[in-house]
Please model this.
Amino acid sequence: MPNRESVNDVMHKFRIGPEDLALVRAAGSVILPEIDDHIEEFYHWLAVHDEYQTFFSHNEGRLARVKSMQVLHWKTFFEAQIDAEWMASRRHVGAVHAHINLPNDIYFAGVCRSSESIIRRLRHMDDRLEQIEATIDSVGKLMFFDAFVVIEEIARSQREKIEAGSKALLEMSTPVTPIWEGILLLPLVGVIDSERTQDIMTKTLNKIAETRARVFVLDISGVGAMDTAVANQLIKITRATQLMGCETIISGVSPTIARTLVELGVNVGDVRTTATLRDSFELALRSVGAGRELFGSERPVAG
Amino acid sequence: MQGDRSVVRTRVNDCLVITAPPDLGQGRLQELERLTIDALCEQKATAVIFELTGVNYMDVQEFHDLRTVATLVRHLGARTVFVGLRPGIISHLVKSDADISGIQGALGLDDALALFAV
Model:
């Protein structure tokens, strides 16, 4: 909810001053008695569009409710009391439009149609309005401002949805899972960038602290591409886990990735790597002391 | 014991446990280095455990100085391990490109003592 100052700042950008609001109020006194005609004309126009069928064709009650809300909208519009409450009411309209996924084209087309209808009616009332051109200019500016607040709320709501989706995707993309007493597994799939690496590291370190894991298996068989940056990021993760006393084994190193690492001159140092997840798992089990009872011998695994 | 804000040294068999205070600034790292080296010179120890569980924050310079102390200890013939570094501190160090390679870590004192078979 904006404070009064921020509302004024935005209105200043739209060059809407007290004189504009006074002209809008004067226009309201002559046009509001005819507002029902304007709304009927608007819905007559809307009826030929697909959106009318989508939102109103099977719901007469909704149509009547929306029409009555539009009467209220134009009443507050021509009252021209632009304050936090006014902004909140326009944002609510935006939130409703975002909720029903109203396409932007029909919203802006509707604003355009309303503007045309209101201005035409005002011109017909020029004998009752002292400054008709200035009045039309002021009404137009306030309509743009009104539409801006609505569309800004729609955009904000969409940004929130995208951010929530990205967060959920990031959550799902780094499932650090305990698979055995003292062993964590993270199967990586897709593209690794620095943001994701940071997320992997944070989650892995926290999980190590939480589960007191001694081995972390990082399976990269699902990673599409490997370059110097990605390789260095993975090596950083292994060193970070080592600082917590947890050994990292990187599994799923394909011959292509191994060759790329050699060609890039990436030094994997003392990081243990295996070609398959099975080999890593076997190494991990031996590290936590479960190898003897499961495999019956201390046969070394290629690493 | 010398109070919550000072470096504390304890001996467990052949291991020297150096417990760092929550704040490593204001000369405490120098105190940690002096106490560690003095203890190693006075009594032989095969390993030094740096107990960092209580450290709330560590910047790259402090980590670098701590690492230097660990290197000194290794030159004096003892093995070293860092215990209880918080995930947030490690993330910060990696993000800040600190050199964390080649350092043995452990989650808890028990794990560290087990490493040296104490």
